[in-house]
Structures are given as C-alpha cells and as structure tokens.
Design brief:
The complex is a heterodimer of chains A (172) and B (173).
Chain A lengths: L2 H17 L4 E7 L8 E10 L2 E10 L4 E9 L7 H17 L4 E5 L4 E9 L7 H28 L3 H14 L1
Antiparallel strand pairs in A: 1-2, 2-3, 3-4, 4-6, 5-6
Helix pairs in contact in A: 1-3, 2-3, 2-4, 3-4
Chain B lengths: L2 H19 L6 E4 L4 E8 L4 E8 L3 E7 L9 H15 L4 E5 L4 E9 L7 H28 L3 H23 L1
Helix pairs in contact in B: 1-3, 2-4
Classes of the chains: A alpha+beta (172), B alpha+beta (173).
Chain lengths: 172, 173
C-alpha cells in the first residue's frame, strides 16, 4: 500500500467516525511507531462511565492493516504485587475469550490499551465492515475498562469481575 | 433453511476452498447448528501447531495453539512477556495463556456482519496468522530453551526486526 492509498483510507475512517458522532482531530504522520516501520493516524477521544479515553486510528501501509487503540492513563507499576497479579489475570482472561479485541499494559507510557486490527484486502476500506467494528470497539472497550477500575479501586476478585463482565456482554 | 444457517454454510464452504488453495489438505470438519469448525494445522520438525477456524454467520474466529506446554514457576513474568509481544510484534492477532495447561494461544477474527465474504482478506488472514504463529511460537520455544532471560531475548529480536524495517523504509524512500 502506498502513502496516497493510506491517506484515502484514513479519510474514509474519519468519515465513519463522523457518522457515529465520534469527534476527531486531524491526522499526523509517524515514521516509526512501536512495532511498525511507518503509519499515519488521527486522534479521537471517547468518554463513558466517567472515564475518558484517547482513541488512535492508524493505517499501516507497510503491513496493509488498520488498527484502533483506546488508551486509558494507568500506571500499573505503582500497584502492589497482588493487584498486578489480579490485573494481569483479568487481562489474560479477556484476551483468551475475545478473538477480536485485546488489552495491553504499557508501562513506559503508563497506559492501559485496548486494541484491534485487521487486514485490508485490495488496499480498500469496507466502510460497513469498519463501522461495525468501530461500533463494537466503542461499546466493549469502556465496558471492559469499568471492570479493570473496579478491580483497582475495590480490589475485587478477577474471576468474579470476568464473570460479571461476560454476563453484561451477553446482555448487550 | 434459515438465512443465518445458509450464510454460515456459505462462509464454511468458502473457508474450505481457501484452506485447500493455501495447501491445508483435508482439514477435519465439524458442523453444528449455527456454526462450522475446521481443525487443521502445521507440523514442523520441532512442534505441531493446531489451527481451529470457527465460521458463524457474521464472523470467523481463528485460534492457533502451540502445544508447547510451557513450564513456568511464576505466571506473572509469563503474562508480562506475552503482553510485551502483543504490544510490539502483533499486527492482526494477539496471544493469551491458557493457564489450565500452560499453553499459549494466538487468536484473531474477521467480521463479516456488514460485508460479503472477501476471499483476499480471508486468504491473507489465514496466511498471516499461520506465519505469525510459526515464527512467534518458535521464538518462545527458543527463549525457554536458551536459559537466558526471555526479555533480553525478545529485545534482541525486536531490535533486529526494527533494523530490518528501517532498512526497508530507507529503500522505499
């Protein structure tokens, strides 16, 4: 994929954000971002349950993929070992049960990141497919995060949090 | 026949044809009421990598296992290691630990809820998830057999990848 095709796809993605009433600011270019040799992206934000998240939407020409990330400020290294163990346990339970989305702790950037990505066939964005994914991403990310917060704030059991999360997901 | 069942069957048939085109001969098939499952895999000298593909009406799930049964005394460094791999090396999938048997799984999915079956997307997804599995399960295996700190091992691997990517970028420009 060349950079011009990537820019067209990025503009289509912005159109989808607009249709779903999700605000965004303009693109920036990154010659190197973690894991990828080059990418272009734009920034957005989303607030639910009183928690504000930064959203980054990427087109990665070198890999022919688009990637969405939802970032919450969270430095886990400040927590005691037992809380870190519980956080990783919940994170892994989610990553094991969900094929589409996954969570990461980024210690350097002190953030908790929710991520998804998929391959773009023929260097073209299927807008209906992307909007479907974006809608799920915006619904499910904050729901998962609410349970991370409960675990952090009230030291709740990760197995119980995971169970309650699954019940809520099924009811969606 | 309901539309949902008809759609899942059409996806199932398309996936079978993709698997055959990619050289996965005679995948084992199981068909249930609302989904179809293919069980296939890749075998190399060191390990066998089962691949499970579940087709539903609006989504296809991919699950790749390593069968390597990692023996770890403390699960936290292992969680951290996979977190680092997911952060730095993944593009269309992610790793998780199946704690019940200390196996590692690699997963992704393709959403079909809004669009028709895209053969190129499916072929590339199957290829990538298989290659990522082979490469990174091998990396994990080497890490654990080396006796070195897995994080040093991983950082060397990432550094090597980064150099290659930057070299490619210089070539493009």
């Amino acid at each position: 994929m060349d950079v011009n095709s990537a820019r067209i796809i990025l503009a289509q993605m912005q159109g989808c954000f607009k249709e779903l009433n999700v605000p965004f600011v303009n693109e920036s270019e990154m010659l190197y971002c973690e894991g990828f040799s080059n990418a272009i992206n734009f920034r957005s934000w989303f607030e639910k349950n009183g928690n504000l998240a930064e959203i980054l939407a990427f087109v990665v020409p070198s890999h022919g993929i688009i990637q969405l990330t939802m970032n919450y400020n969270q430095n886990i290294e400040d927590f005691d070992e037992s809380t870190i163990r519980n956080l990783f346990s919940l994170l892994n339970a989610i990553n094991k049960s969900d094929s589409t989305f996954y969570w990461l702790f980024c210690s350097e950037a002190a953030k908790l990141e929710f991520r998804t990505a998929y391959y773009l066939a023929g260097n073209r964005l299927g807008e209906r497919q992307f909007k479907s994914l974006l809608g799920k991403f915006l619904n499910i990310g904050p729901l998962y995060y609410k349970y991370f917060r409960r675990l952090i704030n009230y030291n709740e059991d990760p197995n119980v949090m995971f169970y309650k999360m699954q019940v809520e997901l099924k009811a969606m | 026949m309901s539309n949902e069942r008809k759609n899942f069957q059409s996806t199932h048939e398309n996936i079978r044809s993709c698997l055959i085109e990619l050289g996965f001969s005679e995948p084992h098939e199981e068909v249930e009421v609302d989904s179809g499952i293919f069980i296939t895999g890749i075998k190399n000298d060191d390990f066998e990598m089962p691949i499970e593909i579940t087709c539903k009406a609006d989504i296809v799930y991919f699950k790749v296992s390593s069968n390597l049964l990692f023996n770890v005394s403390d699960i936290i460094p292992f969680y951290r290691l996979l977190n680092e791999i997911n952060f730095t090396l993944m593009n269309i999938g992610h790793f998780a630990i199946n704690e019940a048997d200390n196996d590692v799984i690699l997963q992704t999915s393709v959403d079909l809820s809004a669009d028709d079956f895209d053969r190129e997307q499916m072929l590339t997804t199957i290829q990538r998830i298989s290659l990522q599995g082979l490469e990174l399960f091998n990396l994990l295996k080497e890490m654990f057999e080396s006796g070195q700190c897995p994080f040093y091992f991983l950082h060397d691997y990432i550094e090597e990848n980064r150099k290659n990517q930057l070299t490619n970028l210089e070539t493009i420009h």
